[in-house]
Write a structure and sequence with these properties.
single chain, 155 residues, alpha/beta, 4-stranded mixed beta sheet, two-stranded parallel ribbon, 6 strands, disordered C terminus
Length: 155
């Protein structure tokens, strides 16, 4: 039975999950065109209020490579948001303070009117995990592109 959500909630992950009432779930990799087509089909051209990304790269142990991978995933989330987020909407991304964090914050400041850092209470004190919250796109893209038109996401 539904939980009474007013709107559409979509979950997307590379791992399966138990069904949740009122949530459309897509199993797949956000970077794949097939997955983006599924997402576009559910969205039906509508813009979204919130994009929440907890994507993280598989860590190699090489700090510069890991930072570049993290930054790339966040760039993909920002790019997706530019096309699919309502202008006053919110993007929340997981990142790590020791992985190119200052560059990621600067990117957020270029793209969003308000940028905040949030450390979840559930996160261990010693963990470098932090969430960046960007509100209000500075450069929203008016046209919604289909997955075929989003080459940066199709890698």
């Amino acid at each position: 039975e539904g939980g009474g959500i007013n709107g559409t909630m979509i979950g997307l992950d590379m791992l399966p999950m138990e069904p949740i009432a009122d949530v459309d779930f897509i199993l797949g990799d956000f970077r794949e065109a097939r997955v983006l087509r599924q997402l576009d089909k559910i969205l039906e051209g509508r813009k979204v209020d919130v994009v929440l990304s907890d994507m993280a790269p598989n860590l190699s142990g090489i700090p510069t490579a890991d930072a570049a991978r993290m930054e790339h995933l966040i760039d993909l989330a920002i790019e997706f948001s530019q096309f699919h987020l309502k202008p006053p909407g919110v993007l929340v991304v997981k990142c790590f303070k020791d992985m190119g964090f200052s560059q990621i914050v600067e990117t957020f400041r270029r793209e969003f009117k308000v940028v905040k850092q949030v450390k979840p209470k559930a996160s261990r004190d010693k963990s470098s995990e932090i969430f960046l919250v960007g509100r209000g796109l500075k450069n929203p893209t008016v046209k919604n592109l289909s997955a075929e038109d989003e080459p940066a996401l199709d890698i």
